[in-house]
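RETRY 2/3 - previous attempt timed out on the joint model. Re-submitting the same 993-residue input unchanged.
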Amino acid sequence: MTEMKTAITLGNASLKKKLNAIEGPFAYEETAYHLPVAYALTGRPVHTAQEAIEVYNLTDENPFVACESVLAFSEQGPGREPAPYTGFIGDAVLRKLGYSLVDGSILGLALVIGTPGNSDTASRICRELQEKYMLTFLAGDVVPSLSSASVKLGLEYRLIPLGSTSIHGVHFVDIITRVALMFGGVVPGDPGRLLAYANQRAKAIAIVFPGLDNEGIALVDALRLLGIPILSLGGYEGGEWTTTLPQDAVREGMERKGIKVTVTAIPIPMSCSPAFEGKSIRKEEMYVEFGGGRSPAFELLRVKPASEVTDGLIRVMGPEIESVKEGSAVPLGIIVDVAGKSMRKDFEPVLERRIHNFVNYGEGSWHVAQRDLIWVRISKDAVKNGIKIEHIGKLIATKFRIDFPDLLDAVQVTMVTDLQAVLAGKKEAEGIYEERDRRIQGMKDTDVDLFYSCTLCQTFAPNHVCIITPERPALCGAISWLDGKIAYEISPSGANQPVEKGVVIDRDKGEFEGVNRFVKKASHGEVERCSLYSIMEYPMTCCGCFECIALMLPEVNGIMVVNREYKGDTPSGMSFSTLAGTIGGGAQTPGFAGISKNYILSDRFLQDEGGIERLVWLPSLVKEELKERLVKKLNELGHPDLFEKIADETKATTLEELVAFLDEVQHPALAMKPLL
Amino acid sequence: MAENSPDLGGKIGYVVLGATKAEDGTRSVSYRLGGESDLPFIGMKTSLGSIPLVAFEICDDPSYWSPIVTSYTGDLVSDTPEWATAAEQQYGADLVRLYLTSTKRRGFDDFPSITKVTEDVLSGTGLPLVVEGSNEPAIDSEIFQRCGEAGQGERLLLGTAEAGRYRSVAAAAMAYNHSMVAQSPIDINLAKQLNILLREIGVKADHIMIDPYTGSLGYGFEYSYSVMERIRYAALKGDTDLAMPMIASAMDSLSVKEVREADPVIRDDIAVAWEFYAALSSAVAGASIVCVRHPKTVPLLKLAFRELWAGKKPGEF
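RETRY 2/3 succeeded.
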């Protein structure tokens, strides 16, 4: 065991001594960055021993400066180490390395250093780094150890032997430094920006075997300043390195630095593409089906601790496709376990909904509905081509990894086909669904400080801005507040942006200073104010995707809602399509608003106009669809009879008929404060 | 007209293409594009912006090129550097845009040829060069690295980056100090998103030109026109993520039915007309560079721009 604190002190002292021993002029070859670390930190080009010592003192005796001065001095001309050692790497090669880093063909940089006890461990770690697209630099004893195990070294193998001593590891630092100067806009002499770049942008890790000499320890320990995680494989005591096992070192380092391997191909014998999403599998084409009322089935996505999820693990519990009779219905449970540093429990339902898309991407697989209502089919053709139930799991797992690279670190899928296990799993899942519904339903606008915007539709409605709150889903009905939140986390520069509520301007109308500010900017100055809970004054703009339109009918002092599917006439004298043409395109039209169906059930619906008591007309299709929840809500509000008082097209399709009906049933809107 | 020209406040950023000897390159001219503070022809003459440039498009494998151009031009098309020389000296283009169509060949792996053709075309013409790299994501990395390296110091315009595929182009632009084309499929939001993605990996705004994708006349050009106007308008209203000069190439012009099936006697004229009107309209919508493929279109456009922009030079307002 080496005691770190002493080792660092001794290492630095020894480096200082070596630095003081150099003399005369010296320089690295093929670089415009002089001694790169010294140059980046101080802006001073170092070419003599005298200058080196000055910069060393100026940088509080920085061990990188000492190492690079010593090496630049000792490796000039004939001092250069023979192959396979590369020594200092010139700018031209570095430019290519930087290119590969930006381009993504290299995911990150790793330094492997120290004295491996056996060369197998070292070669295993290096192979893992190669497989994960890391460019690996080697310094000191690890090089002969790998050579003895016949590991091929060189740039083409992404394993670069820098030099024979531990202090050659400083080339790893001069490379990161030059990448920062070339690609990161870091200016020489600005150590703050260099450190910020290294900490935030440089994707670098260090793996340390035991047996590093004191100078090496001082050098490696200084990497911490650059935000480089140091993973020690043991042998060092005290200090702040992370001790880990050889088999975990690469994964842990990459995770700590947020370096992700991207997956692009789905390794199953079936084509997968959104192009197949719309196809269906008819009964005659079907080999096997699951759920859809013919057998019990469910799907469930859960977030788990990283230690409980093995990325890419697919299990089938119960019969596989070979033992399933053609044309039969089989029980199915799709259980997706995910882990990820930024993954959270409230993302579960949003991600779970994606199982639907993913299964439909398969040319021979089909999926409808959600939760414990799912209905899945696999086609005869697909089975003929070798598709198994396992492959559907593989498809789901891989698509999750491809579509959510930043969110998910690991995905494992269990496909359950055993009846008893499905029934048990389904029961458990149902408990979770209920809990989720409670969580989303329980969310209030007052519980959050951030709303989310949606400007997806600006493509055709240039100034339209949707503001999505927990109690007001997007007007298209497709994006809830949680969806907006997750969409933002997945794609921070996308169409869903966080909107600070800011100071409340009008509680009833739902007007907020922050929302107004956002809407003004996002609408390119066209819309100055926006009330979230009123349709009378400064209502939200409408793109064209609204599920329903709410509009005022001053003659009956009420508000009617018409849905997209309703084709007939409405008491307003206009059909849905005429209304849509009038209010769409990103305009703000007082008295009119585009809304989602679910918003009708929200406490915030028509809040400023007096709430749902204002609702006088709703097509029977929506009334029927919302009936259960709407009746429950009206009961809670103390209007058990209101549901029957809301007219539909069977009661009235003209204003005259509506007036007569409302009079007859004594609709509460008639007695409310005048709308105008 | 002046009352239609509100003071929008914003201004389009500058992009420099080409490097002369004085700028450590070998081009005979370099251009500074951008700087507009109004839509062309909306306000007064002073707000016309800089005169648009005409880029002539060539390729290194003419079997992927329009037969109208290859048959009009003859053997010249099989000598890419000579073709570039002609673009400058005979046709009078302001820029040459080289498409590396050879990379479309199945299993293309002759990477050294990419370096060679880029260098040869740079010797063939003194004009600033636009290089369009591979069409195949699998070889992007190798191709763009070579294009970037071969043109080091020449301040090329490298293309074309798209939302799902921008890293190699961006890497080459950053590593070798070139500018790049960021293309989005006729969609202002995607144009903006791509520019943000580029900014996030470190490409500077003054190294980006927006290609809003130009549909051919009669085949969607009006969408392109509208999106170009909106991009420019958003930029002038202060959206810096869209405040870059635009490049337009209605590359489908020569393959639309009306041109393809035209009477052979007048086919060249029809082709030229089709290219000319799409390019002219793009310039009116705000494009700083318009690209064409028929040699006869170049002088016509130059003449039209000279007349409309009243003899201004590039960069002059």
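The radius of gyration of chain A is 33 Å. Closing ticket.
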